[in-house]
Amino acid sequence: MNELEKRMLKEVAELDSLPVGAYNIRSNGKSAARNTTSNIDIVTKTDVSGIDIIIAPNTVNQSVHIPVIISETGLKEVVYNDFYIGENCDITIIAGCGISNCGGEDSRHDGVHSFHVGKNSRVRYVEKHYGEGTGEGKRLMNPTTVVELDENAYMLMETAQISGVDDTIRETNATIGKNASLIIHDKIMTDGVQKAVAKMSVDLDGEQSKCDLISRGVAKENSYQEVVLGISGNAACNGHAECDSIIMDNGVILATPQLKANCVDASLIHEAAIGKIAGEQLMKLMTLGLTEKEAEEKIIQGFLK
Amino acid sequence: MLELKNISYEIDGKKILNDINIKIDDRFVAITGPNGSGKSTLAKIIMGIIAPTSGQIIFDGRDITEMPVNERANLGISFAFQQPVRFKGLRVEDLLKLASHGNFSDVKALLTEVGLEPSKYWHRELNDTLSGGEMKRIEIAMTAARGTALSLFDEPEAGIDLWSFNSLIKVFEKLYKRTSGSIVIISHQERILNIADKIIYLKDGRIDSYGEGQKVLKMLRELTGEITLKNDGEENGDE
Q: CA angle at residue A188 from A184 to A192, to 5 degrees?
């Protein structure tokens, strides 16, 4: 791996060296490094591009890293990664994609991640998308995440796209079983003429199932964001969706919460707020010695932390 | 240290401050007066949050009338807002660290001083999960953490919930001892006015009286009905 790829790996997965535990590092369309453990297997798919990650029941306190790096201009790929997580597991999965495009052609990564989470299992999933490069070619990413939570399962998704991605459509579709919970913290910052669309759709199918969808976005300059937070309550369940956004310059944000109650015992709430940074917030930080620009950066940094 | 020359402030044809001339050299000065007398406006003009319609502000011999807020802050002026500002995502530690600038070795001790257990509050977000009273105490700790030449507090006692008024007084006394700076407090509380070296009494946008604390306080006590002085906990129900 060259210096650029190492730096990208650090950006998307906070890795300085090969991680401990199971991993699969994909670089420019090929598997660059892989490690499996006694209870985490990684198998290359034969029908399409991608891998199956099979986590044995009762696997606890272990992690899987599956970062993707693209540094070749013009590379376009669709990758399918399927996670089969057995019962009673407690694991952390770190994904992420970094595209460095210094060429004239568009580079694109479409990742489809499917999670089948077994009974009583807990999963923390971290996904960071990042782009850089001086070329004319765009950096494009379209992640699709499919989640199925079995009885009593819990999943926390921390997804972020903080800079450098020109165009993205991020889709998340989840079905939540009895007494299971899904929490999503999604953060997006766009600038220039970037465009980002995030669509989440959660079916609360099981009795006492829960979800909490929290989206925070910052749209700067002439960028555009669209956020759809959809929850269908199909049983006695609790769903909460919150979309909080800051607009700056000529940024545009369209936020659409969609709640559908298919059961009289479903309890669904949404909150959405879009606005510029409050003048009094800037003023407070200026009374602590920051310039207006520094105050703005501090507020955004905190908002997206 | 601070001199206001012919400061006036007018908005929508209404004079809020009318030709204020004052020199503040003392360590502990209280500004009091009826509601709408221009107290908060005066403090905001000193900090630079509001620009005066006319007049000059001299701080340590330097004309700061045109100076932006952040430059005044770095020059040594602090301001505790009457209604503290909330931030989604920023934590108590973020703002306290920013405020302390390394000037004060243990900013956590300041949280304890304002009655907030650091282990519980250090990582709390400054969002609406904190009560108004908690926000107010954090605001006071933040201003004390800066330890600047001039610390302005806009009605620090307002909204202090479930916290002893004595403790608030102690915070000011400690700040007084720790720094060599001046403390200017806008207050209606007799207990705060009582410890002030000097008291400024504002009325209808003008300085009605300015003098030694006890003398002005005596005069104010005689003006029954004209201003409302509050005793301990009267507003806060906290003692």
A: 170
- The Cα A157–Cα A123 span in angstroms is 8
User: Given an 8 Å threshold on Cβ–Cβ distance, is A284 in contact with B81?
Assistant: yes
Over the stretch B178-199, which tens digit does the pLDDT of each residue have?
Answer: 888 999 999 988 889 999 999 9
**Residues of chain B with C-beta less than 8 angstroms from the C-beta of A298:** 90, 94, 98
Any B CB within 8 A of A244 CB: yes
d(CA A117, CA A209): 14
**End-to-end Cα, chain A, rounded Å:** 30
Q: Looking up tokens 């002439």, which residue turns up?
A: A222
Whether A292 and chain B come into contact, CB under 8 Å, resolves to yes
CATH architecture of B2-84+148-174+181-214: 3-Layer(aba) Sandwich (3.40)
- Mean pLDDT across the stretch A110-116? 96
> Which residue of chain A comes nearest to B147, CA vs CA?
A288
What ipTM, to 2 d.p.? 0.92
3-state secondary structure of A12: helix
**A247 min Cα distance to partner chain B (Å):** 15
